[in-house]
Amino acid sequence: PISLFRKSINVQLLTLSALSIAFTGGLIGLLSFRLAKNVIEERLIKKDLPVLVKLKAVKIENELEKALQISKIFSNDPELMEWFQTNEIKPELEKSTKQKMTQIVNLMGYTRIFASNLSTKSYYYFEKNNSHEKEIQIDKKKIEESSEEDKWFFRFWNSKKDYEININKANENTYAYINTLIKKDKKKIGVAGVGVKLTDFVDEFFAIDQYGGKTWLVEKESMKIQISNDFSEIGNPASSVIGEGISLQMSELNHEPQIFISQNTVGKLTFFAFQSLSLNNTVIVYAVPYENIMRALSIMRTVTFISTVFTILIAFFIFLFY
Known about the structure:
The protein is an alpha+beta fold. Helix content is 48%, strand content 25%. The chain is built from nine helices and eleven strands. The chain has helices spanning 2-7, 9-75, 78-85, 91-108, 151-157, 199-206, 238-241, 246-251, 290-321; strands at 112-117, 122-127, 139-142, 163-170, 173-184, 187-197, 214-219, 225-228, 258-263, 269-276, 282-289. The strands form two sheets. It has a six-stranded antiparallel sheet, with helices on both faces. Strands 8-7-11-10-9 form a five-stranded antiparallel sheet. Helix 2 (9-75) runs antiparallel to helix 9 (290-321) and helix 3 crosses helix 4 (91-108). The radius of gyration is 31 Å and the shape is rod-shaped.
């Protein structure tokens, strides 16, 4: 081959032409890849990811906003206030209030509704049981500050908030509990609220998508995960699950979506999208591995390179033969 190359001007010209074509093809392919990569990154950062993470936030906020309004209406009910202020001694007010509680559960499909009286420490509630959905019974118990399951009442009571929204996961289901103050003329009477089962649409929006992206709901103050498609991640520090850079990004977050590229916990480059919820102190975090987004471009680059090499070789030998 070396001897043939030295003696034949045709082979030399063909070789130089092939090298020129290869260089030109490779340069064009590289520039096209970089241009396409920049276009995709810009589109994801400025358009696609902000819209996607905002859609997730709106879906949750709409459900929570509706539950909050129902809870506020119930906590401001005149008959409920009068019943509690008279230390629950009027049977007609008790009957009317309990009827309203059952109506709210039936109409709105909530899993829990409750009302608690500060003066008597009575806690009236209905917990919806799937096996007895037609049976509606308002239960009663006494709230005790020493009880672990009742500490939420006293914590909320002393928080100086008019309402709060707590989101957690139990028995493979995600719930939101909305607590609102019962007060008249600025005098605190008790706490009322509803419990909403969020699992149906949470699973849809928090599941791993076609890009391998994943979504979490993180509480700003504690920096712990409140909702995840992986039950074992609930309650863990967000930095140990999502990445170390999450704390800094969340501290600078406002009401608009924020998108940035950083490394996740295993060191892989990742697109991160943040969106805070307006109703409570939580943030939706959406993460997509960088390589998942660029996989199609990488495949196209490899195919282009291989095709260019084979085309040059085939053309070279065809011209050489003839």
